[in-house]
Amino acid sequence: MDAALEALREKYSQPEHGVELLMLGGGYMFAPKKELWEYLKDRYGRKNDNRLSRAAIETLSIVAYSQPITRGEIYNLRGAAPDNMIRLLLARNLIREMGKKDAPGKPTQYGTTKEFLKLFRLASIADLPKLEEQDRERFALNG
Predict the structure, then answer these.
(1) Quick one: pLDDT at residue 142?
(2) 71 and 133: one domain?
(3) Rounded to two decimals, what is the model's pTM?
């Protein structure tokens, strides 16, 4: 299987092909080559349909860097009620419920999805950009 995937990757890395084989979210998919993104986005991309607001991106970042995380923990980090953003991110399949926290009230915990990994072209959550010290402290859950 690895040899077949490597053969496909090699074949599609040639200049005459506009796609490449990527490992994303534990699976493989063909995607446009990075150097073609801007051209394709402008020509075929949806203009504002899938844009996330600043609040949604902030909430998604908190979930990505602090998962698994509860609503209350997101509220503590953001300083604003995350309910609408959580609903939006769940509807877009960028986050999912990951179970219940072993704490009073058994709050639901959230984490990112394979769709999140695909959207940001990450093979795994470990591929997120590393945070600087100040940001690591911000995303750290106290308690």
Answers:
(1) 58
(2) yes
(3) 0.68
